Amino acid sequence: MSQDFDHLIIGAGISGLGAAHFSARRGLSTLVLEANERVGGCINSQRFDDLGGFWVEAGGHTCFNSYGNLLDILDDLGLTEQVQPKLKVGYRLWKDGARRSITSALHLGEALASLPRLFSEPKAGRRVADYYSRVLGQRNYEDLLRYAFQAVICQPADDYPAEALFRKKPRRKEVIKAFTFNGGLSSIAEAIAAGSGIEVRTAQRVGSIAHSAEGFEVRIDGGKVVRARHLTLAVPPPVAAGLLPEGFEAARVALDGMEMAEIETLVLVARNTDLARLKPIAGLIAIEDAFYSAVSRDFLPDPAHRGFAFHFRPGALDAEAQRARACQTLDLNPAQIVAECRVHNRLPVLRPGHAERIARLDAALAGTPLAMTGNWFLGVSMEDALTRSRAESDRLFGAPV
Ligand SMILES: Cc1cc2nc3c(=O)[nH]c(=O)nc-3n(C[C@H](O)[C@H](O)[C@H](O)COP(=O)(O)OP(=O)(O)OC[C@H]3O[C@@H](n4cnc5c(N)ncnc54)[C@H](O)[C@@H]3O)c2cc1C
Question: How far is CA 168 from the centre of its chain?
Answer without folding.
Answer: 17
